[in-house]
Design brief:
Mean pLDDT: 97
CATH architecture: Alpha-Beta Barrel
Largest sheet: 11 strands, parallel
Low-confidence stretches: none
CATH superfamily: Luciferase-like domain
Strand content: 15-25%
Helix content: 25-40%
Number of domains: 1
Structural class: alpha/beta
CATH topology: TIM Barrel
Radius of gyration: 19 Å
Number of strands: 13
Shape: globular
Distance between the termini: 12 Å
Amino acid sequence: MRIGFALPQFHRQAHGIARTATFASEVEQAGAASLWVGDRNLAAVRPSVGYGGRGNTIPAEFNATTDPFILLGIAASATRNVLLGTHVLVAPLYPPVQLARSLTTIDLVSGGRLLPGFGVGWSPEEFRAAGVDFARRGARMDEVLDALEAIWGGDPAEYHGTQLSVPLHHTPLKPVQRPRPPIYLGALSERALRRVARRADGWLPVCVVPGHVDIDGLLAQRALLDELAVRAGREPAAIDTVLRVNIDAGTGTAEVADTIRRVHERTGIEHFMVDSMYAVDTVDGSVEHARDVLERVATG
């Protein structure tokens, strides 16, 4: 199994981001396979849609947030081998030229270790702040992916869709990974899984320990994804999975490690990303938490 960890990006850990390089280096030395960031442009005071699209509240842990691209750049320069992932960037919020530039830079700095993961987002207020139509975010996601393919694929490059347009421009600087970095997508609904089946290199599901660990649900979603991939003319085995493991406050590392092992045994998922922001307040505490999870998974 490969176990990765979220960088100190949100909530109380965000106040310790000056130690991001130390966190990245120490967690890599402890045996982590990957380091990750998420994406939260803002947490609305009076949200019209709540976290995960349910209710009308957003956890306080999202009030303090730091820039994902900068954190990945710091982690890239402080490490040598770990993958550097996004689980997930809300891709429709970004102009594709700027998104491609940031991701290309990280892939080059890291020597080809970038694993970009995208989602369509759920917060209308975030889209309003970015000047983007929330109702058309799914279609915009498809065009962002098309534009990235074009920008990373040619020099000069251009893209023209119904929502996005990129003029013909010089693009000599390309990612190390060719023809492009592998693209992973978050998906829960059948519609979103259909997008993964058509065009993604990987799928990014989520569980919460101990609040929501639905192994049967994961298996059912993966079975549907495999079926959709076959319909799209793709080999299901070509679509990787990285499971995000969020940890509820008060949950011990033994339970986290046990959950990872159980999910692996039943689903065959090999790569896990652990996020301790709900459970650990400090960067030093997060380092120790990561070390303990890695040791317990290895010896359990």
